[in-house]
Structure formats: C-alpha cells, structure tokens
Design brief:
The chain has 430 residues and is of the alpha/beta class. The chain has 2 domains: 249 residues, Thiolase/Chalcone synthase (Peroxisomal Thiolase, Chain A, domain 1), CATH 3.40.47; 151 residues, Peroxisomal Thiolase, Chain A, domain 1 (3-Layer(aba) Sandwich), CATH 3.40.47.10. It is 33% helix and 18% strand. The chain has a 10-stranded mixed β-sheet, with helices on both faces. A two-stranded antiparallel ribbon has the order 2-3. Strand 9, helix 13 and strand 10 form a beta-alpha-beta unit. Helix 4 packs across helix 8.
C-alpha cells in the first residue's frame, strides 16, 4: 500500500495567479443602513463615530435594541410605478441601494436609456440575503391558523431571490441572475460569485446587491437563545474587539456595488472607484456557531496570494468582528498568523460597533466602507472600543475615532455561522 503524502495548504488550494485575471472595477456604490438612507450620510456618520443603534419595541421579544431603519419610506426611495406591495422589506432596501449605485456610476435607471448605453444581455445581477423574506413567514402562518388563505403576493415576499429578481426586472438586466445565501458571509460571497461570472466572460457588468431585514421576534429570539446577541440593552452594546464584548446587536439594511470590466470602463469613459483584485472562500467544517479560526486564516491567505504584493503601511482590514467573545478572538489570532509582524503596521477596524450586524447584508456594506477608505484615505473607527482584547495587543484597532491614512489595499472579512468564510480584497484604481 502506497502511503499518501499530506499536502500543504498551498498545494491543497487551487488558484490562478493574479496576472491571469482580467481587471474588474467598482464603478458605483449605494447603501441603506441604520447610519443613513444613502452612502454620503452613512459614511459621514460612520467616520464621526455616531451610533446607528436605537431602541425597538417588537411584540414577542425582550430584545430592546437593534440597528433599525425607522425613517425609510419606500414611496420616496423607490422608482415611481413599482408595486411596493410585491417587494419585501429587504428587497426594498436592496433596490434603493442599487438605484443609488446606478446614479453614482452615472448609469441611467430607465430601461430604454440603459439599453442604448450598454448591452443589458451582458449585465447581470448577483443578489444575497441570509434570511430574505422569512420575517413575513409568521404573518402568513397566522393567517393559515385563522383559516384564511395566503395572498398570491405572499410568495413574492417570502422568496429570498426576490432581492435579485426585483433589480433585474426593474432595470431590464438580462445577464446572469442568481441569489446567494451564506449566513453572515453572504455579502462577500455575492461579490465573489459576480466576479466569477465576469472572469468566465458571461457578463461585462454585474450588479451586486445584498439586503436583510430580520428584526422580527422569531429571528431575534432564535439568535438570543443561541447566546449570540448582546446582553446589554443600550446603544453602545456592540463592542467589537473589546474585553467587555458579549454578543452582537442585530441590524438591517442593504448595499450595492456595480462591477465593470476594464473594457466597459474605457468605453463609457468612467472613473472607477477601486479594483476588485481577489477573493478567498473556505469552510471550517466544524461547529455551527464556534469558528475554528483555521478557515478564516486560509481564506485570507488565498485572497492575498491572488492579490499579489502589498505595503502593510497602506493596508486596511475591515474585520468581521461582530462583538462575540470567541469570534473576535479567533479572527484576530488568524490575522496575526497571516500577517506576522506586519500585523502591527496595518489598520484594523470593525464597523459593526456603530451600525450593528447587518447579517446577510453586512459583508457588502463593509465592502463599500473598504472602498470609501481607499477613495478618501480615511479609515472608519471601531466604535465603543475602550479596552482592547488581550489578543489584539500592539495592533491598531482604530478605537472610537477615524484615522486619516493612505489606503492602497483593503481586505474585507466575512465569517458566518456554519463555518462559512469569505474574504475580498480591493485596491485603488490605477
């Protein structure tokens, strides 16, 4: 019997060298978050260290705080003529973010105008949501218990892929269409799946959109029962990377990126915001709720291998860090293992201290923050960080206040329940 030799990580993980990939750029961004209904407001509030956490009063749960979006009016935020009753709350957030991203890119949102400018057969959509319209399930279930039949519209509100299909139908996008669900890693996975469609030459442009609205008693109490939510009931309860962290604060919202090939950027005369250069996706294959750290480390290494060289002095990591004791610890230890002594030179922050944990939308929201950091040379702070955890000794966690710093490269970490790990890397557009 021939003894099989164990392969090292590099041999075990197939990848293409950076030069084999065509250039893919981010040309537009949009966001709806607890910190603001658009990108400028969200970004300014995030930099200022303001909190998007507020008090909630939801029947059936004792949870009293969340990153709730209280002033979202779909009649004002969505295109006129759209049948709002057919669009679930998370899909509304997603569509609003997409419309802003189109405007940011200088692309028309009218079908005929868009068709005249680009080939919509090669303009796809990759959506993402962790739970989607599941918050409508209890209402439908109650109707059945009362002897009433569900409305024909209910199925449209419940289906998770509605996050993507609404965008495709509203804008007339006829390229690849899919919707990803990967727990809290969903946003980053949606980015990488859209990227792959472009690398495969199936699309010239892709809308990436992720959205979540899980502030319902079933979801809140389920995560609370799992011991994942913070025990504190105040707007400063989310304390990523802090000694006193004790669980995350759930939030809602949506975000969008528009990706375009270099050819399209040149053809349309666009000024790209950043280049999407790499991704890394792995699984822990371990416990549902307790990360191993190995999968996160491996995902970062894969992404860095694909991205190529970088300067640690101009490198930023938007950490997944949700404010859970074990999750934050494992991530920081993984970062130390990957970067070694260079870890002390890079800037690391978690934006979940300000806005809470957007679940399936979080990764895409944080990708937007990474790109804004590259654009402006400002790293957003880790809100509520007073006493850094021991594992982070010597690291720059950007506590409480934003730091002005040149950012050439930004890594976006997303690690979800079930051991799903997804990392993306962006660089300044040259």
């Amino acid at each position: 019997m021939v003894e099989k030799k164990a392969l090292n990580v590099e041999e075990r993980t197939p990848y293409k060298e950076r030069e084999e990939f065509p250039k893919v750029y981010v040309i537009g961004m949009g966001i709806v978050s607890p910190l603001g209904l658009n990108l400028p407001t969200t970004w300014e509030n995030l930099k200022a260290g303001k909190s998007g956490i507020s008090n909630i009063d939801i029947e059936g749960t004792d949870i009293k705080i969340a990153g709730s979006i209280n002033n979202f009016n779909p009649k004002e935020m969505l295109p006129s003529g759209i049948k709002i009753r057919r669009v679930s709350r998370p899909a509304q957030f997603g569509l609003a973010a997409v419309i802003e991203a189109f405007q940011d890119a200088g692309l028309p949102t009218e079908k005929e105008e868009l068709e005249a400018k680009v080939d919509t057969r090669r303009f796809g959509v990759c959506g993402g949501t962790g739970i989607g319209g599941a918050n409508d399930m209890p209402r439908v279930s109650d109707r059945l218990k009362e002897g009433k039949k569900p409305s024909p519209i209910d199925v449209l509100l419940i289906e998770p892929e509605r996050i993507a299909t609404v965008v495709s139908m509203q804008l007339g996008l006829r390229g690849p269409l899919t919707c990803v669900t990967a727990a809290c890693a969903t946003g980053n996975r949606a980015i990488t799946d859209a990227y792959k469609d472009m690398l495969a030459n199936d699309a010239d442009l892709m809308v990436v959109v992720a959205a979540e609205s899980t502030l319902d008693p079933v979801t809140l109490e389920s995560f609370n029962s799992a011991g994942a939510l913070s025990r504190e009931q105040n707007i400063f309860a989310s304390k990523p990377l802090d000694h006193k962290r004790n669980g995350f604060v759930m939030s809602e919202g949506g975000a969008s990126l528009i990706l375009a090939t270099e050819e399209i950027v040149k053809k349309l005369g666009l000024r790209p915001k950043a280049e999407l250069v790499a991704y890394g996706n792995t699984a822990d294959a371990g416990d549902d709720t307790e990360p191993t750290g190995e999968g996160a480390e491996r995902a970062m290494r894969i992404a860095l291998k694909r991205a190529g060289r970088f300067r640690p002095e101009t490198f930023y990591i938007n950490a997944h860090a949700t404010s859970t004791p074990k999750g934050d610890s494992k991530e920081v230890l993984a970062i130390r293992s990957v970067f070694g002594e260079d870890a002390k030179k890079i800037l690391i922050s978690s934006t979940k201290g300000a806005g809470g944990h957007g679940m399936g939308a979080a990764g895409l929201m944080e990708a937007v923050f990474c790109i804004k950091a590259i654009e402006e040379g400002v790293v957003p702070p880790t809100a509520n960080l007073e006493d850094p955890m021991d594992e982070a000794e010597g690291l720059n966690l950007v506590p409480r206040e934003a730091q002005v710093k040149e950012v050439e490269t930004a890594m976006n970490n997303s690690f979800g329940f079930g051991g799903i790990n997804s990392v993306t890397i962006f660089k300044g557009a040259v």
